[in-house]
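This part of the workshop introduces the protein records we will be handling. An example says more than a description, so a record of this kind follows:
>
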Amino acid sequence: MKKLTFHLLSNAHLDPVWFWDWREGLNEGVKTCRSMAALLEEFPFLRFSRGEATIYRQIERFDPELFEKIRAFHRAGRWDIIGGNLVQPDQNMPDTATQVRQFLLGQQYFRDTFGEPVRTAWSADCFGHSAGMPEIFRLAGFENFCFSRPAEAQLALPDDLFYWEGPGGSRILSCRLVIGWYGCGRDETLLRLNSALERYADSPRREIALGMGLGDHGGGTTRRQIREVLAWAESHPEVEVRFSTFSDYFNAARQEIAEGFEPPVYRGELNFCLRGCYSSMAGFKHHFRRTEALVRRAERSESVIRTALGQTPEGFHREWSDICFNTFHDILPGSSVERAYEEQNDWLGGAAHSARAREFAALNDLAATVAVRVPVPADDMPEAVPFLVFNPRPVAYCGPVELETNLDYRPLLGAVPGDKILEVRDENGVPVPFQEVEHEHHCYPEILWRQRVLCPVELPPFGWKVMTFGYVSHPEYAPAPAGHPAEALSEHVIGNGELEVRAVPGSYRIELLRNGEPFAGDGGISFALYRDPWGSWGDGSEEFDGIHLQELVELWRISEAKVLETGPERAALWVRFSGGRSQIELTLRLNRNSSRLEGSARILWLDRSVRLKMRMPQGDRVVYDVAGAEVTRGETGQVPGVRYARVFPDRPYSFAADSSFGFDNENGFFTLTLARGSRYSVSTMTAADEFPEHATERGELKLNFRLAPGSGDAPALADELEFPPVTILTWPHSGERPGTGSLLPLPALENEGVELVTLEQESAGTLLATLQNRTLHPVTVRTAQGGEETLPPWQFRRVSLALKR
């Protein structure tokens, strides 16, 4: 056998945010790279690997001399560009679109600044990896992947070097660093080398990767480490020791494969570890999820509209960069200090506002091309207010929308509440059925001024519709639509002919019925506290109690319930569950002709060392949405999920939510963790009264969710939460477009199960879309050139789509 070759991968893992803020983290990146550049000049045999475009941008802007040194080292093969991302993200919680953007933007930066894309993905410290990442890696152009978590104690693998295969068959050569960790302490170099020698002495593989260099707050390789390696190598001539790079190592491994070594194939997720992070900092996670969805929706809307108008949008690079930075594996997982979260919330807020402003501008520009007409008012009566309603999805929308406006510029002092003076019309001036619903203020209740209505609409894919809402002396009313109305059945029960929701004060659960039978089992919806004394990361030792979290502390009871809306288009039930210190208020809604339960929750959270779980009937198995894939799990303790879940008890059901990522499915319940009573950046177990000044997120938390019978509607539930119709007030004017229409023809994306992951302008009249086929069979998509593109199961494609002009 040939000699063992130890590839010492000199690197300097740097958390840009953790026990410090982003300003310190980014400048430390400059400082660390300056230190490593000096060491490379001092030791001609030394090589170094560095990732994350965010760090390189900081150097490029504030230390251009160092940046040019790095470029020269890179050309000489001594400075390896790895990772191909903006930051090292969490790879379980950001959705598919965000993971794709992370690497597309990172690769674009490295192509622009270093002349070539990165070939090796690198995840030093993230807490597990979604089963769909191989598909995302291949889309981004990676050939190799190196990681360190989860360790062998959490996940057994067939070898340290293996092919990781995604659900679509994409394979990426992967290596787990198992000796030590991704870096190396100042005093552990010799121990690491000796451990590697013992572990791999009889291995059929002779090319071995070892991490080297200080980490977490930068630092990189030290002179002591270099001296100790040189001395060890001299005393072990049977081993070749190389100061190597990730690219060097994988090139050597591929040569070994060419010579006959066959790495095993591993399929599935690389999970789990540090499971508390799926639920820590629930409020920040909700803010992140909301911003993620806002930017996706705004990018879709602006790209479609401006391309259709012959304009060139500027792109959403800044907003996506903001989101991607906040996916960092100590930000989104909830393990940083309080001061850091205050600033990261500000950062996300800027991206959210920018997305809304740009979407609003694009919709106004679209509205300017649409013929907007209003009914002619009677003498000196206020004019009806026109709205443009836009569907930001590539599939048709059929459901309710809300319109809210002032009926006049000042209150209608002569009107009496309850007078039948409101009217809603469509783009053709035809009356539309509607329901008056409560508006957001409770000022001047004795006068009629600002009003809100709910009405059913149909919108084509990426389509618009003009509607008018206003005061009239003699309104015309549309006949009620077909189907059973949504209505209040009693003071604690609502229904719509198919679904029924009951919330009786004193009970421990909300009952859900479908056609008179339990919705998905006898469990309904309930809320309970479970013991959870572990810190930000959860139980790092992965003991049974720490990952399953089944010790019941308090079962909450319904303390109050009342009907808010009585139909006929929508019925709503308000329910309060109370515990000893905290409570949750729910608004549950049923629409006419709908099999979905819509819910919104407001939590007043004051408890410590426990977690709040929303409990639903347990499934024999649950299929979770994760980045780039779906995964099926049974009773595996706390697990991550992203946009939706398909739950399979005797009567399957679908669930989607916009907050938290931590689920479990055992002991009779499928649950979503809504809040954790943890502490900022605490790694030890704590009692409820310990570190009160460091308690996380006391106060108000929110989430929205959807439930539906059957398993097929799960992706649609998530889309309804993230991409609802958008409504803007406009004004009467002429336009070349009719009062309703579509910018994207339906046949372009007519296949169910094809997810529109990203959308941006490609050229005049065409859009560049990233699509993923999330089914088990090939599907065909029509492209801008009139041709067809076949998408194999679970694979991604970047395709051109034509617009209607």
